[in-house]
C-alpha cells in the first residue's frame, strides 16, 4: 500500500511497543505521524507477557501490539507495512526516508526498530519460536520454571542467560563453540552448576508442535523443554550511522540518547531495545512515551520559528 501523503511531521521507524507508544504521544501533540514497519517483526509479537504493570494474566505479544496499533490509528497515526531502506538528512527541511516502494520527508525521526535477534538458521526454528525456542532469557525464563533448558551462544549474553536460568530451571545446558567472556564471568559460570558443552554446535531441532530435543554436531541428543538462542543482536545501525547518530562506544550496537531520548543529531530520537538493555516491554513503552513527546515538542518549535520568519 502506498500512501498519498508524502510529508509528515514525524516518521517512526519500527512498530513494536516503543514505536507504537511514541506514535500515540506524538500524535496527541497535534503532529502528523507515519509509522513504518510490520508488527510481526517485533520481538514482542511471538512472546507472552505476564510481568507488565496493570495487565493481569498472560497476554500474547500479538494481542498487545494489535491493540496498540488500533489505539494509535484512533489518534490519527498512519501506518505503512514497509521497512525503511535508506535515511538521509534533508538540509534544514528535516529528513528523507526511503522505503521498499516509496519515499517520505519529515521534520523529526524516531528510531524504534528494536534489535534483530540472530537465529541458527535451522529447519523448524521459526516455527518453534514461542513453542520452546526463545531469543530472550529476561523475557521468557519464568515460563521454564522446573524445566530442562539449553542456552546457545558464545558471549556474555549467553552466559548471563544460563546463570539466570539455573536459578529457575531444573537443568541448564550451555552449548557453545567457544566462550569469549571475562575471567570474572567465567568464574561465576564455573560456580553456577550450569553444564557447559563445548566446543559444540546445534545440528538439528526435534519437535513439531513444540521443541522436544536438540541434536549436537557430535550426535548427542539433549532432551529439553526450551532453547534460548543468545547470539547477540544487531539493529538498524546502518541507518543510524549514515545519519551520524552516535552509537555506544564499546560495541557500536546501540544508540546513545539523553534523558529526553534525543540523539546527538537534532530532530532524531530513539527508544526501546535499540537504546540498549534491558530488552523489556516496560522500558520500551516508557522510552517511547518520552521520545514521542520530545519529537512532538521539537516539531512544534520548528513550526513556531517558521511562522516568525
Secondary-structure blueprint of this entry?
Elements: E1 7-13, H1 17-27, E2 33-36, E3 48-49, E4 59-60, H2 61-74, E5 78-80, E6 84-89, E7 95-99, E8 103-111, E9 115-117, E10 133-134, H3 137-140, E11 148-152, H4 156-166, E12 171-175, H5 183-192, E13 195-197, E14 202-206, E15 213-216, E16 221-223, E17 226-229, E18 233-235, H6 237-242, E19 268-270, H7 281-308
Parallel strand pairs: 1-2, 1-8, 2-5, 8-19, 10-17, 11-12, 11-17, 12-13
Antiparallel strand pairs: 3-4, 6-7, 7-8, 9-18, 14-15, 15-16
Summary of the model, kept short:
This protein is an alpha/beta fold and 309 residues long.
Percentage of residues in helical conformation: 25-40%
Number of strands: 19
Topology order in helix (H) and strand (E) letters? EHEEEHEEEEEEHEHEHEEEEEEHEH
- What is the domain total for the residues? 2
CATH T-level topology of the largest domain: FAD/NAD(P)-binding domain
Number of helices: 7
- What structural category do the secondary elements indicate? alpha/beta
**Rounded mean pLDDT score:** 90
Q: CATH homologous superfamily of the largest domain - what is it?
A: FAD/NAD(P)-binding domain
Largest sheet: 7 strands, mixed
Amino acid at each position: 500500500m502506498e500512501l498519498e501523503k508524502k510529508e509528515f511531521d514525524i516518521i517512526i521507524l519500527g512498530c513494536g511497543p516503543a514505536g507504537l507508544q511514541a506514535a500515540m504521544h506524538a500524535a496527541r501533540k497535534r503532529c502528523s505521524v507515519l509509522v513504518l514497519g510490520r508488527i510481526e517483526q517485533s520481538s514482542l509479537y511471538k512472546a507472552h507477557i505476564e510481568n507488565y504493570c496493570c495487565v493481569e494474566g498472560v497476554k500474547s505479544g500479538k494481542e498487545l501490539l494489535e491493540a496498540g496499533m488500533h489505539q494509535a490509528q484512533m489518534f490519527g497515526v498512519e501506518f505503512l507495512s514497509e521497512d525503511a531502506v535508506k535515511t538521509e538528512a534533508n538540509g534544514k527541511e528535516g529528513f528523507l526516508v526511503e522505503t521498499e516502494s516509496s519515499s517520505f520527508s519529515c521534520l523529526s525521526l524516531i528510531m524504534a526498530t528494536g534489535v534483530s535477534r540472530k537465529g541458527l538458521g535451522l529447519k523448524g526454528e521459526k516455527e518453534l519460536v514461542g513453542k520452546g525456542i526463545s531469543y530472550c532469557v529476561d523475557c521468557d525464563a519464568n515460563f521454564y520454571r522446573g524445566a530442562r533448558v539449553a542456552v546457545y551462544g558464545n558471549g556474555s549474553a549467553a552466559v548471563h542467560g544460563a546463570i539466570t536460568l539455573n536459578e529457575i530451571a531444573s537443568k541448564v545446558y550451555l552449548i557453545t563453540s567457544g566462550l569469549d567472556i571475562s575471567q570474572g564471568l567465567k568464574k561465576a559460570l564455573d560456580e553456577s552448576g550450569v553444564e557447559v558443552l563445548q566446543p559444540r554446535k546445534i545440528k538439528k531441532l526435534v519437535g513439531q508442535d513444540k521443541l522436544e530435543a536438540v541434536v549436537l554436531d557430535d550426535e548427542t541428543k539433549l532432551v529439553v523443554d526450551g532453547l534460548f538462542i543468545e547470539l547477540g543482536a544487531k539493529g538498524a545501525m546502518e541507518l543510524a550511522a549514515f545519519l551520524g547518530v552516535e552509537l555506544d562506544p564499546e560495541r557500536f550496537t546501540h544508540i546513545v540518547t539523553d534523558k529526553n531520548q534525543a540523539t546527538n543529531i537534532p530532530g532524531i530520537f530513539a527508544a526501546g531495545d535499540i537504546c540498549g538493555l534491558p530488552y523489556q516491554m516496560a522500558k520500551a513503552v516508557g522510552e517511547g512515551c518520552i521520545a514521542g513527546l520530545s519529537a512532538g515538542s521539537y516539531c512544534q518549535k520548528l513550526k513556531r520559528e517558521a511562522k516568525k520568519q
